[in-house]
Amino acid sequence: MTESILPIIWYFIICGELGLYILLDGANLGIGILSLFPQKEEERGIMMRLLGPIWNANETWLLVAAGSLFGAFPLVYAVGLNALYIPAGVILIGLALRAVSFEFHAYANNKRFWSGMFGVASAILVAGQGLALGGLLSGVKVVDGKFAGSLFDFATPVTFLITIGIFFSYLVLGYAYLIRNSSYQNSNETFPRILIAAGGTFIALLGATFLLPETNYVFFDRWTMSPTMYYLFALAGVIGFVSVTLAYYVIKKIHLERVYYLCLGIFVLGALGMLIGTYPYLLPGSITIFEAASPDSTLSFMLWGIGPILPIILLYNFYLHKIFARKTEGGY
After folding, report:
1. How many alpha carbons fall within 13 Å on the CB side of residue 319?
2. Of 35, 45, 184, which is closest to residue 119 (Cα–Cα)?
3. How far apart are CA 170 and CA 263, in angstroms?
4. Residue 233, SS3?
5. Whole-prediction pTM value?
């Protein structure tokens, strides 16, 4: 393999790992936030039972992605953590509190308190993810391979809108997962809330899309140069079609088993559009994958050492989701 191929391979491996984490754990985070809504404790019990067998497995992808990034692109790992200390801290707090509250909920007498804490932890984790992604897309100041900005550079209007958009999108994904795996769709409030959350997602992310060119000109270039502009407009059209189909199914309350997969499709298409808009940058506008990559020997060693583990993780995630895909009625 040539030196230019290995960074590209690891770039797509890490993007795939992060994408799987978002797709698999996004619904769980949305369900966690939904547990904060006024409802019967029995309904919260159904939510917690749905998450029980799979939530730890989902987070495996986040750990694997972090390890892969550290080994394959250490410069991005170092600069990114310096630029995003606060979002990274928020994510760690959310992860820790989420794990503690979930385990305590299973054995505590006061389940309402711990289900509430689980919801708070999920909201904290989602906020951390939004702040981190928004901070990266807003641009990171790098001079001579070192972070040259301030602690609060991540706090931009783009970051604020992206955080809101991710929050609402996870709510939609959480509702869709509940409809697919439980009798939660019997609630009359479910479908209007899906439409409201989807509308919030659309408005927030559309606003962020318009502001991004002012913050980071990489995105402006991608939307105005060939051939990337054709790919991006085509993806936008497909996302629009899938979104309209999703709204139609929800309004008519038909083909409910497809709602979750349509949501996943929108996430995948949106992520693909973001990759087209940023490649080959890992820190948009600052550091490319080729500048940040480890030596060729390290990347080769990682590919043959870690690579075979990834299909194993993928298989056991698939197995868990297949086994526990049946409808859930009882509490936890």
Report:
1. 7
2. 35
3. 10
4. helix
5. 0.87
Strands 287-288 and 142-143: unpaired
pLDDT band at 330 (very low <50, low <70, confident <90, very high): very low
- The Cα–Cα gap between 249 and 183 comes to 17
Q: How many helices (H) and strands (E) does the chain have?
A: 14, 4
Residues 144, 221 contacting (CB under 8 angstroms)? no
Of the candidates 329, 312, 322, 320, which has an alpha carbon nearest to the alpha carbon of residue 54? 320
Give yes or no for a contact between 26 and 88, defined as CB atoms under 8 angstroms apart: no
Contact of 89 with 106, CB cutoff 8 Å: no
Mean pLDDT within 289-301: 90
List CB contacts of 182: < 8 A, sequence separation 6 or more: 46, 50, 327, 328, 329
Q: Please give the class, per CATH, of domain 5-323.
A: mainly alpha
| pLDDT for residue 28 | 86
Q: What is the 3-state secondary structure (H, E, C) of 39-108?
A: CCHHHHHHHHHHHCCCHHHHHHHHHHHHHHHHHHCHHHHHHHHHHCHHHHHHHHHHHHHHHHHHHHHHHC
DSSP 265-315: HHHHHHHHHHHHHHTTEEETTTEEHHHHPPPHHHHHHHHHHHTTHHHHHHH
d(CA 1, CA 8): 11
Written as six digits, the tokens of 39 are 């409802």
Check: CB of residue 287 under 8 Å from CB of residue 75: yes
271 burial class (0-12, 13-18, 19+ CB within 10 angstroms)? middle
CA distance 267 to 233: 16
| 328: three-class secondary structure by DSSP | strand
